[in-house]
């Protein structure tokens, strides 16, 4: 169950990062409110998952899902560049996450 909660926490991190971008520096009310709600939910789920998962593992997975997820949202939705170097960097993050998961 902790892994499911951690995954949801990571996905919420992607959601709040994207909504923060849409908030335009917190000048748009809807995206700003969503950002704060998603942040609180993400931290809460991370905290619950840390009851049974090691700190290093939980935090690494959470930030990794957020980083790679935000990277993909940037490319797929916001039209950010997908250079070879950026794709390699994302692949390295994913491989690190897999190693962390399998080592726990």
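^ structure tokens above, recovered residues below v
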């Amino acid at each position: 169950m902790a892994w499911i909660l951690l995954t949801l926490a990571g996905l919420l991190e992607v959601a709040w990062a994207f909504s923060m971008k849409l908030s335009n520096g917190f000048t748009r009310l809807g995206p700003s409110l969503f950002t704060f709600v998603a942040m609180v939910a993400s931290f809460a789920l991370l905290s619950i998952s840390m009851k049974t998962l090691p700190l290093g593992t939980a935090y690494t997975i959470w930030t990794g899902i957020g980083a790679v997820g935000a990277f993909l949202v940037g490319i797929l939705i916001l039209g950010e560049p997908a250079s070879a170097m950026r794709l390699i960097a994302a692949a390295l993050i994913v491989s690190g996450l897999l190693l962390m998961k399998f080592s726990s």
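Residues 2-103 form one domain.
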